[in-house]
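Protein modeling request. Please complete all fields; requests missing the sequence field cannot be processed.
Requester role: graduate student
Desired output: 3D structure, token encoding
Chains: 1
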Amino acid sequence: GKMSIRAGVGQFYQRERLSNGLSMANNSPFSLTAPSIDRTLDVPVPPGQGTGAPNFGVDPSNQIPNTWQWNLTVEREVFRDSKLELAYVGNRGIHLLRYTDANFVNPPSSWLEYSTNSTLLANLIASGEDPATAAADAGSANNGLRPFGRTPACDPLSDPGCGNFG
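Delivered output (166 residues):
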């Protein structure tokens, strides 16, 4: 005929789940959390260095990430060797994996002092220190706002991510 209608739908699952388990090897006792302070070559890590806090975790209630994809195409022959095609394609992601910092300080609390005090910000920039790092760990005030105090960022893998396209 001169017209065709095609449609398709499918559900696709994320198969790769190995890296989540491998990332757990970055936690103690398999690795150390060393301070990022310049050390001499003779003692790169101080004696008795603790193993530190875990920096990765996996939410045990994670579900398998998957996407639904669909399309609908209508084609019509206009005249010989030419056609008009109209198509719609959609995609929806469900339970998509994402990392969240469990020890996160709300940005307004960490950036407020720098955004309201131009002298402080100018001194920070002149010092050559990374403003993002300094504001994220601006001292004991910010550490008091962290859920787990001075422990490093902990990035548990969770699945609340989703997306719609189409």
